[in-house]
């Protein structure tokens, strides 16, 4: 900078730090400029004078006369606080002004952030932003931090905490130190303490759980997992346990497996003695050998596959039945939805009872499942200890429905599973041993499933399945045993005795022990069930303790020659007489007898020794089963002739009926053999007692029937005449069926008909015909006799009249004190004559009305009115005359009064009809006028249409030339369109007028027709009324 060109005194040298600087107007954002204007010391350098060119002369004196003179030095400035202070004060220690910093800054110039306020880099304040320093986020775990540029670039927060407390770490003390984890409260970190042997690393997860080596478990990896043992640097060794026979756990120190109840071995890999079929589904591991308790060594049998006995109820109830607790039967309902149900009206439970195919020998279902689907219709079920019941072999077990992990029954179908096993895991009660449970299944006699559980409830059963096994291909059924039998036993289950052995207790069946056969040396084998020996050497008996039939001797000696043949024919048995030692035949062949069977027995004939000629074997006498087998001497022992025939038989062989008997003498049933002829003495010719031997038919008189001639043929009678039956000859009209009494010959007559042949009416009846005769029913007081004439009219006493003579004659009266009708006094004759005159007038009036009603001419209103007045006058005259003689008949007066009232009503109706006719005439005139108007309108319409046609024909539309006005065609088309619309409107109006005229004409015609029909109906009604009135009298 320079002063004036020649300032001798009073010159000013001014210097501005911002003048001419390009970024002077963006000072807050220019760190370079901010640094430029910042000064801690000011140095002024005087390095050039204006010599006015004297240096040219190089005069030292002149040059030394130039000098600098500074009289005043002023610096204009302020404290540099970088915008973070509004004032500064002198530091007493050094005399240097110091900024009074704000915005969490400090330093002489507020040029740094305070400790713990390093979350973002320090910046000087600007006019728009104070850029205050922000505190570090150390989550309350540290009071120290520093600014970390890398962290700031990554997270926009540069506060990096130091010396984090409570085992925390991280820029914000936000995580635990290595090998530490945060507790559940989230306030402090705890050491992981991972087992250095069992864990993969010393660091744990956020829950404190360490990462374990294979086979190691526990939060700190301090122990072996189930199924592992011996913790080492490589982890825990897996247990070598057989999963089917163990709980898959072993001793953590030794590795010895924890076996199921029926399994043994270090690895639980074999069944204990007496058990077989190691099964992972079996909680006891192995199934006990059954072998009918004869062996404890068994294994799974080959060749068996899984099978099931099931009921799905798709078509019917499949023979399932219902039963109450007391054993009484109840009906089972089947529904087409494929289920059966039981419905209860009381608290007592009902049971579903399984059919035969679920029962019997179900030993192969031991240890298997019985499954079923079941539901109830209401939720208030009360279960019991006997919801599922098994019975058999004198044993009984039951289990609740919810046992074995089953749910409570509900309104939806649920599956229930029951394992058939004696284990306490399946609480069948009472508790049975495995042998008892298998014994029950071997002879299963009943399966009951409870169906109802509350009052007025229902239970529904479906899909019952019992798992079993069968021989054949399929999924193998390993639970079927094959026993290794001890001596004396054979069979898959040791259920049979071996050859040479028998059951000691046959009643126990396969549960009985087997003993060796005892045959006295005559056999090595016997029946295994009964112990019966297969005797040889001509011996017999259970133990070959006697000689067989046809032999004699002592078989207990034990030699093969103990028994010798009997000296008897046919190999019959014999015996030795103890005293004489004589051999006597004890069971001669049928038909022989004697010590050596040399004679024919009673009931047999022949000559066994040929004493009378040729030898003839004794044969049974053939008496057709018509002898008494208990009688002696039924036939001749030489010839065989039957001597004592019974059942009314006769003949050499008793093979025909006796005289007077008939039938089949060879019939099996004695009641069907020979029966007495029993011919009727009245109907049989010559009173014979014999009949045909086969049919038993007796010889009958003519018109006699039946096998024994005991009845007349239909239409005949008098069997007892002894000469045959007589014909009934019943009247075909008077009898019911032409039959008569077989004794008296009396025919069966129609009602009211009598006579032996029903040929006449009974007394006091008449009208002989197909339906019988009718009673006369003559009045006993008015008729001279109870018998009527052929037409049914009774003969009346004087003064009585009527068909039954039950009314008094005119001018007679009935007097209770004097029987019969009494003649009225002579004065009543005058009244009768007057009445007869009135009757004649009424007859004339009837004739007048008949003529009036029957004429075919159309009567004008005036003529009809005159004739009606004439009839009224006649009736009024008749009424006046009747009133003069009202004492004769008051009823006539009342009827004539009603007649007069009715005629008045009819007169009023006639007036109404006249008015209606007049109105109808007026309406008809109006209708005619409207018809004429319609005709005029139609005429005018026709004229308009003709004019339109003529205008159309005269209309000449020429096509415009190309050079003509193009709007002419448009105008013509518009004119034609308007004309067509006008014609259409006129036509519509004409059509409407014509339709209205036609409707009006139709209504007028209908009204006129109804008026004329009403007038004719009134005339007919009036005539009918008059006729009815006259008939009343």
TrEMBL record:
Residues 1-78 form the Laminin N-terminal domain. One of its GO terms (biological process) is axon guidance. Disulfide bonds join 101-110, 192-204, 212-221, 259-268, 535-544, 645-654, 700-709, 728-740, 730-747, 749-758, 776-788, 796-805. It is found in: Secreted, Extracellular space, Extracellular matrix, Basement membrane. Keywords: Basement membrane, Cell adhesion, Coiled coil, Disulfide bond, Extracellular matrix, Glycoprotein, Laminin EGF-like domain, Repeat, Secreted, Signal. Residues 79-135, 192-238, 239-288, 517-565, 621-676, 677-727, 728-775, 776-823 form the Laminin EGF-like domain. The keyword Cytoplasm does not apply. Residues 861-993 form a coiled coil. It comes from the Eukaryota. The keyword Coiled coil applies. CDD domains: EGF_Lam. Residues 315-482 form the Laminin IV type A domain. GO terms for cellular component: basement membrane. Its main location: secreted. InterPro entries: EGF (IPR000742), Laminin/Netrin_ECM (IPR050440), Laminin_IV (IPR000034), Laminin_N (IPR008211), LE_dom (IPR002049), LMN_ATRN_NET-like_EGF (IPR056863). Binding to cells via a high affinity receptor, laminin is thought to mediate the attachment, migration and organization of cells into tissues during embryonic development by interacting with other extracellular matrix components. Laminin is a complex glycoprotein, consisting of three different polypeptide chains (alpha, beta, gamma), which are bound to each other by disulfide bonds into a cross-shaped molecule comprising one long and three short arms with globules at each end. This is Laminin subunit gamma-1. It comes from Salmo trutta. The gene is lamc1.
């Amino acid at each position: 900078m320079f002063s004036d060109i020649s300032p001798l005194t009073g010159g000013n040298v001014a210097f501005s730090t911002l003048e001419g600087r390009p970024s002077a107007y963006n000072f807050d954002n220019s760190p370079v400029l901010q640094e430029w204007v910042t000064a801690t010391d000011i140095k002024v350098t005087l390095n050039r004078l204006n010599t006015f060119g004297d240096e040219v002369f190089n005069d030292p004196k002149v040059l030394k006369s130039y000098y600098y003179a500074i009289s005043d030095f002023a610096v204009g400035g302020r404290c540099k606080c970088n915008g973070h202070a509004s004032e500064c004060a002198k530091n007493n220690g050094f005399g240097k002004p110091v900024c009074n910093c704000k915005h969490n800054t400090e330093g002489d110039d507020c040029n740094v952030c305070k400790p713990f306020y390093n979350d973002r880099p320090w910046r000087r304040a600007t006019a728009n932003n104070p850029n205050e320093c922000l505190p570090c986020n150390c989550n309350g775990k540290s009071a120290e931090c520093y600014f970390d540029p890398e962290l700031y670039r990554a997270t926009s927060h540069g506060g990096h905490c130091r010396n984090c407390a409570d085992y925390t770490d991280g820029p914000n003390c936000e995580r635990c130190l290595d090998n530490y984890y945060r507790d559940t409260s989230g306030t402090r970190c705890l050491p992981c303490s991972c087992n250095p042997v069992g864990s993969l690393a010393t660091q744990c997860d956020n829950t404190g759980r360490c990462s374990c080596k294979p086979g190691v478990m526990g939060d700190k990896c301090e122990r072996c997992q189930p199924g592992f043992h011996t913790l080492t640097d490589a982890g825990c060794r897996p247990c070598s346990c057989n999963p089917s026979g163990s709980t898959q756990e072993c001793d953590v120190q030794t590795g010895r497996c924890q076996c199921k109840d029926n399994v043994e071995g270090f690895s639980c890999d074999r069944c204990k003695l007496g058990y077989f079929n190691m099964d992972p589904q079996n909680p006891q591991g192995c199934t006990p050998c059954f072998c009918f308790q004869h062996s404890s060594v068994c294994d799974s049998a080959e060749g068996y596959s899984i099978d099931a006995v099931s009921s799905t109820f798709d078509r019917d109830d499949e023979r399932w039945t219902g039963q109450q607790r007391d054993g009484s039967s109840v009906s089972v309902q089947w529904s087409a939805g494929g289920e059966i149900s039981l419905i209860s009206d009381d608290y007592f439970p009902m049971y579903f009872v399984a059919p035969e195919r679920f029962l019997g020998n179900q030993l192969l279902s031991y240890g298997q499942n019985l499954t079923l689907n079941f539901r109830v219709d209401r939720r208030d079920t009360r279960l019991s200890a006997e919801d599922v019941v098994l019975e058999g072999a004198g044993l009984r077990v039951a289990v609740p429905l919810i046992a074995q992990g089953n749910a409570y029954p509900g309104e939806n179908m649920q599956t229930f599973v029951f394992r058939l096993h004696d284990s306490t895991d399946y609480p069948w009660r009472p508790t049975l041993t495995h042998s008892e449970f298998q014994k029950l299944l071997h002879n299963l006699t009943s399966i009951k499933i409870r169906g109802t559980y509350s009052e007025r409830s229902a239970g529904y059963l479906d899909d019952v399945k019992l798992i079993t096994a069968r021989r054949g291909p399929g999924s193998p059924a390993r639970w079927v045993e094959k026993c290794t039998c001890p001596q004396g036993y054979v069979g898959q289950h040791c259920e049979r005795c071996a050859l040479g052995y028998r059951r000691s207790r046959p009643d126990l069946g396969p549960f009985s022990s087997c003993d060796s056969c005892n045959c006295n040396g005559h056999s090595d084998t016997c029946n295994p069930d009964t112990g019966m020996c297969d005797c040889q050497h001509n011996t017999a008996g259970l133990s070959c303790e006697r000689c067989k039939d046809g032999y004699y001797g002592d078989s207990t000696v034990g030699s093969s020659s103990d028994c010798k043949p009997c000296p008897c024919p046919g190999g019959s048995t014999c015996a030795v007489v103890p005293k004489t030692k004589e051999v006597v035949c004890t069971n001669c062949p049928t038909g022989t007898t004697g010590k050596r069977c040399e004679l024919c027995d009673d009931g047999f004939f022949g000559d066994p020794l040929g004493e009378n000629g040729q030898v003839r074997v004794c044969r049974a006498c053939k008496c057709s089963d018509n002898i008494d087998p208990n009688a002696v001497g039924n036939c001749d022992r030489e010839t065989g002739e039957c001597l004592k025939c019974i059942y009314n038989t006769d003949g050499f062989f008793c093979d025909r009926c006796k005289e007077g008997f008939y039938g089949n003498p060879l019939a099996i049933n004695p009641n069907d053999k020979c029966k007495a002829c029993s011919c009727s003495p009245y109907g049989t010719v010559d009173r014979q007692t014999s009949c045909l031997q086969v049919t038993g038919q007796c010889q009958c008189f003519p018109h006699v029937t039946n096998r024994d001639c005991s009845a007349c043929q239909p239409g005949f009678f008098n069997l007892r005449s002894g000469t045959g039956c007589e014909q009934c000859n019943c009247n075909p009209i008077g009898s019911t069926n032409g039959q008569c009494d077989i004794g008296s010959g009396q025919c069966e007559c129609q009602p009211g008909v009598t006579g032996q042949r029903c040929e006449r009416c009974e007394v006091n009846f008449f009208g002989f015909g197909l339906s019988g005769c009718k009673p006369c029913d003559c009045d006993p007081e008015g008729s001279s006799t109870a018998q009527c004439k052929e037409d049914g009219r009774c003969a009346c006493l004087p003064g009585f009249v009527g068909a039954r003579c039950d009314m008094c004659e005119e001018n007679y009266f009935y007097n209770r004190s004097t029987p019969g009708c009494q003649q009225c006094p002579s004065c009543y004759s005058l009244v009768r004559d007057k009445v007869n005159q009135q009757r004649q007038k009424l007859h004339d009036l009837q004739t007048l009305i008949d003529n009036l009603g029957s004429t075919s001419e159309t009567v004008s209103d005036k003529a009809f009115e005159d004739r009606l007045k004439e009839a009224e006058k006649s009736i009024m005259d008749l009424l006046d005359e009747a009133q003069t003689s009202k004492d004769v008949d008051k009823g006539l007066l009342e009827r004539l009064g009603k007649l007069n009232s009715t005629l008045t009503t009819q007169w009023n109706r006639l007036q109404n009809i006249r008015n209606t006719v007049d109105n109808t005439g007026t309406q008809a005139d109006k209708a005619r006028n409207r018809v004429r108007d319609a005709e005029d309108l139609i005429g005018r319409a026709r004229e308009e249409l003709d004019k339109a046609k003529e205008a159309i024909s005269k209309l000449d539309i020429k096509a415009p030339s190309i050079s003509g006005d193009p709007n002419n065609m448009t105008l013509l088309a518009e004119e034609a369109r308007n004309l067509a619309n006008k014609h259409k409107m006129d036509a519509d109006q004409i059509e409407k007028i014509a339709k209205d005229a036609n409707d009006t004409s139709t209504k007028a015609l209908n009204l006129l027709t109804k008026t004329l029909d009403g007038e004719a109906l009134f005339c007919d009604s009036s005539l009918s009324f008059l006729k009815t009135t006259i008939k009343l009298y």
